[in-house]
TrEMBL record:
Keywords: ATP-binding, Ligase, Nucleotide-binding
Stretches assigned to coiled coil: none
PANTHER family: ACETYL-COENZYME A SYNTHETASE, ACETYL-COENZYME A SYNTHETASE 1
Span of domain AMP-binding enzyme C-terminal: 572-651
Positions of transmembrane segments: none
Biological process per Gene Ontology, one example term: acetyl-CoA biosynthetic process from acetate
Acetyl-coenzyme A synthetase N-terminal domain span: 68-122
Protein's recorded name: Acetyl-coenzyme A synthetase
Classification via PROSITE patterns: AMP_BINDING
Gene Ontology CC, one term: mitochondrion
Class in the EC hierarchy, top level: ligase
Species in which this protein is naturally found: Scylla paramamosain
Record domain AMP-dependent synthetase/ligase: where: 124-510
Length: 691
């Protein structure tokens, strides 16, 4: 149990029981108070005195081109990754063995006899060499309120928090759920878990109470960290209330630490602990846990084509090495850069390229709390100018939204510090690529379209700006990263050879960042990723290899859709909708959407005698999906149909529904295998009437 340094433990609210506001010392404390900071007050990168991370060509001087290095990494993975792991990570006990895989069981081990602590690698070693360098540049929701946090400060806060967790009985291997705004507290919480060997499970703070509860339960988390509220796009979000509703369904939870973001007075229950107060009792030294390379670092829940979201499990050394290596080489990161990845820490992009990759490399990393259009569509570029950002990494959906506004929203801000632009999460179409490259980057920056997944831990396919003489082409991720061997497969499992070909995108090599399992369900891991194409990791995406051998992503081949860059299983939406008493059957598909990438389209059959009007039912369904999953999962369209296209064995043919939802009734293909082919015309008729 927690020790308490207070005679009266906090009982009623996030501030002290007396009502006076107790604040944690240092940067975790924040408020919405405007602190206008002029450009000269900002320390873009602080003290830059350490030795820069060597280029790959310095590590392997005999290798000159990207192709040479890439081939070497595939031919000699142990030498390649072993050398990088030795030179770029700080070990508690150096490894002797680089890999010990058991591919037939889908068990992968990197550096299995080595020991390191991820938090030491991300913080202590930099705090030792350049304590005053800015680690985090927190760009809060309101422009002009940025807060720099140095490596020394980050170390102090992380250690305090780790001490709080340890004193509260959180130990090695325990899962801790984090439901937090993009903030230094979120980063310190992730690192504090790593410090004591606990396993964090960050849940995106836009997910509903029910979605949070199911993730807490699946992970068996006993501890939750949250804040009173969050602020995004000028709106206040009641985080603590969501946590309360979730925790009410989770008997496993024994304690909830409540930090402050807005200093609002929130109701505190018996399991709640005011974090600021707990922090003020702890010191800034915390002995790091000795961690095996393959100890779990974190779980991150993501959608699959069937069933509930799965807890993708990443371990310590291999993940960190892969995140750091890709951060350095995909983005051509150099000492002194200000790395701006505007993803939320609740997604894998936030884990690998806001937190672990940049911090492992001792970078200054931006934490962006706001939205692309708050308070206006110039927000991104105003932030770039104010913080002196050198790298800007975002999602295509944001670009597609912004390119609809006047160019002046971009041009009016100084973007001369930008050197590399990046995009992730969905295909980057030509229009968005050119807008980003030509207007934002003034054709002077390198733009990298990066393809990867929660399961891959880091970027898998991407142009490499630091590759000598490697051209970058528009709107395709192009080249596999070190250690990655893309393989295209046919439906029957055969490999598609040659150029100018399409296939299911698989990986025929083992890279250090690969997720090791699905938490608590290794069989599902094997079935999902390794059974569809024997001997390969299957990504779920399709790809095209062009005449030059470069890769283009053609989109998901399963029932996962991509809405505003968020992965969503259509089955999850269907399950939520089926809870409505008037709904008899439902099938959800994605359809092309100009801004969102894909929109959600729901076909449904209502029961014969409904309790409510159609409009009432649709409204209920919107609420239901929002409360079961999140706002982005709510279908754009609910189409009531007389039936669904089913095969004789009763399987819904979604391919047909996708064509109807995309308004391409002329491209339905063969429908003769349906139990009742006439149903298709009645669905098309319903679609046309609904337009
Ligand atoms: C899609 C995000 C096209 C893809 C890091 C993948 C992309 C899924 C790209 C993973 C890209 C990601 N071009 N599609 N550059 N990057 N995707 O797990 O369908 O949230 O399987 O990871 O996003 O989404 P996840």
């Amino acid at each position: 149990r927690r020790k308490s340094c207070h005679p009266h433990p906090p009982l009623c609210c996030a501030s002290s029981p007396e009502g006076s506001v107790s604040k944690a010392p240092g940067p975790l404390r924040s408020s919405l108070r405007a602190t206008s900071v002029s450009k000269s007050d900002v320390i873009p990168a602080g003290d830059i005195t350490s030795t820069p991370i060597p280029e790959i060509t310095d590590v392997f001087p005999e290798l000159h081109t990207h192709e040479h290095i890439h081939q070497f990494s595939l031919d000699h993975p142990e030498e390649f990754w072993g050398q990088l792991a030795r030179s770029r990570l700080e070990w508690q006990r150096e490894f002797k063995t680089v890999t010990a895989h058991e591919p037939e069981k889908a068990i992968f081990r990197w550096f299995p006899d080595g020991q390191l602590n991820v938090s030491v690698n991300c913080v202590d070693r930099h705090a030792r060499h350049h304590p005053d360098r800015v680690a985090l540049l927190w760009e809060k929701d309101e422009p002009g309120q940025q807060e720099p946090i140095t490596y020394r400060q980050l170390k102090d806060e992380m250690c305090r928090l780790a001490n709080v967790l340890r004193a509260s009985g959180v130990g090695k291997g325990d899962r801790v759920a984090l439901y937090l705004p993009v903030s230094p507290l979120a980063v310190a919480s992730m690192l504090a878990c790593a410090r004591i060997g606990a396993v964090h499970s960050v849940v995106f703070a836009g997910f509903s109470a029910e979605a949070l509860a199911s993730r807490i339960q699946d992970a068996g988390a006993e501890t939750v960290i949250t804040t009173d509220q969050a602020v995004r796009g000028g709106k206040v979000i009641q985080l603590k209330q969501v946590v309360d509703a979730a925790v009410a369904k989770c008997p496993s939870v024994r304690q909830v630490f409540v930090g402050t973001r807005t200093e609002s007075q929130v109701k505190m229950g018996p399991k709640d602990i005011a974090l600021d107060k707990a922090l003020s009792c702890e010191g800034t030294e915390c002995e790091p846990a000795v961690q095996d390379a393959e100890d779990l670092l974190f779980l991150l829940y993501t959608s699959g084509s069937t069933g509930s979201p799965k807890g993708v499990a990443h371990t310590s050394a291999g993940y960190l090495l892969y995140a750091a290596t890709t951060h350095k080489h995909v983005f051509d990161y150099r000492d002194g850069d200000v790395f701006g990845c505007v993803a939320d820490v609740g997604w894998i992009t936030g884990h690998s390229y806001v937190v672990y990759g940049p911090l492992a490399n001792g970078a200054t990393t931006v934490l962006f709390e706001s939205t692309p259009t708050y308070p206006n569509p110039g927000r991104y570029w105003e932030t770039v100018a104010r913080l002196g950002i050198t790298h800007f990494y975002c999602a295509p959906t944001a670009l597609r939204l912004l390119l609809r506004y006047e160019d002046d929203w971009v041009k009016r801000y100084d973007r001369s510090t930008l050197r590399v632009l990046g995009s992730v999460g969905e295909p980057l179409n030509h229009e968005a690529w050119h807008w980003f490259n030509d207007l934002v980057g003034e054709k002077r920056c390198t733009l990298v379209d990066t393809w990867w997944q929660t399961e891959t831990g880091g970027i898998m396919i991407s142009p490499r700006p630091s590759a000598p003489g490697a051209p970058v082409l528009p709107a395709l991720p192009m080249r596999p990263m070190f250690g990655v061997k893309p393989v295209l497969c046919e439906p029957n499992g055969g490999v598609v050879e040659g150029m100018g070909v399409d296939g299911a995108l698989c990986v025929g090599s083992v890279w250090p960042g690969i997720a090791r399992t699905i938490y608590g369900d290794h069989k599902r891991y094997v079935d999902t990723y390794f059974s569809p194409y024997k001997g390969y990791y299957f990504s779920g995406d399709g790809a095209h290899r062009d005449q030059d051998g470069y890769y283009h992503i053609t989109g998901r081949m399963d029932d996962v859709i991509n809405v505003t860059g968020h992965r969503l299983g259509t089955a999850e939406v269907e399950d939520a909708m089926m809870e409505h008493p008037d709904v008899a059957e439902v099938a959800v598909v994605g359809f092309p959407h100009e801004v969102k990438g894909e929109g959600v389209f729901a076909f449904m059959i209502l029961k014969d005698h409904t309790h409510e009007s159609t409009e009432e039912i649709k409204n209920d369904l919107r609420k239901l999906v929002r409360s079961k999953i999140a706002g982005y999962a709510v279908p754009e369209t609910f189409l009531i149909c007389p039936g669904l296209p089913k095969t004789r064995s009763g399987k819904i043919m979604r391919r047909i529904l996708r064509k109807v939802a995309a308004n391409k009734p002329g491209e339905l293909g063969d429908i003769s295998t349906l139990a009742d082919p006439t149903i298709v015309q009645s669905i098309i008729d319903a679609y046309n009437e609904n337009r």
